[in-house]
């Protein structure tokens, strides 16, 4: 019986939901997308678009300030962490948008003790906590919430650090509070509100620490969102999205007199948002989404002279947004979305030299955005939207031990995305968008040794993306979006010799990208072929239709009935691919005969009349079935 290779094109698949499974929390994760998986000899091979493989840590944890290693045993936060404050005793208060800490239910606010246990302290909020400020026995919170504990508190509130009881402090902001800074007997708050503490206050206000009332004589009046606050002496530095402060043009970074609220002359003039500010010894460090400070080009992070407002020579040059900064001794810790900073590859978190701006060897590697860094030496607390910190470098292809969940030393080092994997007898085949593997040139399709991870000599050299792989005996079928592979002109699909990598004569030539290939058996009625015991029919997924499961032959005892049914349908399906239906093949002879007699009694032409044949079905753009035989051999085959 001939075989068919089913090609799946297009994108409108109908997926069935997977059944619930138990998730292993000890298994390694990647810092990017996984597109394909293969299991062999107790190892899980994964391919995709990632650069790191590491253990799950949760969204917030302390890291050693010297080694960069995560503190072991820290409870995992399920969600996102936006803010953190040291409790002064080795523990941390954390705020964000999360539902549990180490499996213990916590609604957006929690206290993790020095022994890594979760404190029974549990105020809880009904919305995200985006800012925290600790003052004595009181913890102030700002964010999106409207309920704190069981008490109405609109976007700002305060709780006792020992009991978790909500205090009477109630500024009642009408918009999100994003930044808080305690200064003497007042609390400076910034955000997106226009009224707070009983007064009209645009995005920034000074609140009494006891009553929550706004200072009636202090009103800088900012025209857009405030994201960051920093106090130095009698000066308040403000960062955000604004372009005007107190009636003065100030782009994203400004200085305000802390006593009067008036805008100072200092004007760095940044061209993008400022998300974080730290200050020390006459220098203001800013992080955000800008790429210029005045006339100086500075990408997302800069140091500004606190007197002149000009950028200094310090220039770490981050590749993407900086969300948070923390100053500690001679170092500045930076977190955000970047993948390089200070002249080094650093994934979302880095330690920078305050003098040179270069990245130090400290390199924890976060798998997604870092929103907050808070240091309490010798530890640095890091919080964000990540699921893991640390791990090993693996570019787009890795092997993980299924028993331990740990990444192995196997490292092919693929320079771009892997989209398909296929297990071969002597090697692992892969397809994607890559151009090199382990320093060897391999374009879009290659194979690697199971043991060493080195590229083999097999090199079909596709000139475009390979997104599907399948094997049948000594032939490797490839699909994707290319026009040449295996040394021949082939459009989007080809058959390759598994030893030489050369293209065979197979020429389906689909007119769009191929996403999946699967060899399968079929029945060709034009050659009078009937199913035999043990054979299975071809099965492909059709858009808007269903998938016929593979079916075994019904056995010789029903061959006569089956043959009669096939004679009935053969005139209408001559030369087409037939997906056999078990119910049709199993029907009784009487039912089959009655179907043939009924049209004659009504004067309807018999099925053998050409006028009664059903018109051909319209072509499906999402699938096709193609014989591995060449088009020439099919044309030469005798007709029945």
Helix/sheet category: mainly beta
Number of helices: 4
Terminal-residue CA separation: 16 Å
Main beta-sheet strand count, sense and barrel state: 4 strands, antiparallel
Q: Give a count of the beta strands, DSSP E runs of length 2 or more.
A: 53
Residue fraction in strands? 35-45%
Share of helical residues: under 10%
The general outline is elongated
Cα-atom radius of gyration: 33 Å
The overall pLDDT, averaged over residues, is 84
Uncertain residue segments: 522-615, 617-621, 629-640
Structure, explained:
The protein is mainly beta and 640 residues long. The chain is built from 4 helices and 53 strands. Strands 7, 8, 9 and 10 form a 4-stranded antiparallel beta sheet that branches. A hairpin with a 2-residue loop joins strand 31 (322-328) and strand 32 (331-336). It is elongated. The protein starts with a strand and ends with a helix.
Strand-helix topology:
Layout: E1 3-9, E2 28-30, E3 33-40, E4 43-49, E5 52-55, E6 60-64, E7 77-86, E8 92-101, E9 104-105, E10 109-112, E11 129-135, E12 138-143, E13 147-148, E14 151-152, E15 156-160, E16 177-183, E17 186-191, E18 195-196, E19 199-200, E20 204-208, E21 226-232, E22 235-240, E23 244-245, E24 248-249, E25 253-257, E26 274-280, E27 283-288, E28 292-293, E29 296-297, E30 301-305, E31 322-328, E32 331-336, E33 340-341, E34 344-345, E35 349-353, E36 370-376, E37 379-384, E38 392-393, E39 397-401, E40 418-423, E41 427-432, E42 436-437, E43 440-441, E44 445-449, E45 465-472, E46 475-481, E47 484-485, E48 488-489, E49 493-497, E50 514-521, E51 523-524, H1 559-573, E52 577-578, H2 582-585, H3 589-601, E53 623-626, H4 631-636
Antiparallel strand pairs: 1-50, 1-53, 2-5, 3-4, 4-39, 5-38, 6-37, 7-8, 8-9, 8-10, 11-12, 12-15, 13-14, 16-17, 17-20, 18-19, 21-22, 22-25, 23-24, 26-27, 27-30, 28-29, 31-32, 32-35, 33-34, 36-37, 40-41, 41-44, 42-43, 45-46, 46-49, 47-48, 51-52
